[in-house]
Amino acid sequence: xxxxYIEQLRLRxxxxxxxxxxxxxxxxxxxxxxxxxxHKPRDARxxxxxxxxxxxxxxxxxxxxxxxxxxxxxxxxxxxxxxxxPEDDDHLATALREANEExxxxxxxxxxxxxxxxxxxxxxxxxVQPFLxxxxxxxxxxxxxxxxxxxxxFPLSTLASKDIISSRKMDIQGFVFDTPIYDLRGDVLWGxxxxxxxxxxxx
Length: 203
Hints:
The protein has helices at 2-12, 20-23, 29-35, 91-103, 156-159, 191-202; strands at 45-56, 59-67, 77-78, 81-83, 111-115, 119-121, 126-134, 148-155, 165-172, 175-184, 187-189. By secondary structure, the chain is of the alpha+beta class. It has a single domain (2-202), classed as Nucleoside Triphosphate Pyrophosphohydrolase, CATH 3.90.79.10. 25% of the residues lie in helices and 35% in strands. The strands form two sheets. Strands 1, 2, 3, 4, 5, 6, 7 and 8 form an eight-stranded mixed sheet that branches. The chain contains six helices and eleven strands. The longest helix is centred in the middle third of the chain and has 13 residues, at 91-103.
């Protein structure tokens, strides 16, 4: 069953992706007011993240990280990932390297299913390329003490439930705005990562 699910995803990723039409469903009012067309500037810094799927407790799961303090995205929930380094051959190498550095995920134990649509994050000027990956068993996560406050393992069946979607008023550096969120059992997922999840669920 798991193999069939992954192969169906792999096949679906060969067709045109839902892209901005799916991402924008979880976009904040701040983003929509700034750029309803999801503009991607030419000088954006390159980054990549990994959405890893794996079986756990009889269900397919994915893992998010709670980022540590410091930087624009401090204390936010995201997929493991980060900026592309000069030594990275491509965006996939970036996603796998960062997943290893942040969570101890071993690259050769990840079956890459394919890429989702890239997404621009204005506050940090990053153009992020997400990748879907699969591990046949739950990785032995080793969170980086410098970058990760904690991990959130979440079943896809619950992630797909509309019951965990609501809205929240955010106050970021004195700028107040409304945003849709996923309630991950009390942890709030919003912003770019929520938009990536929205595209994944549209698949």
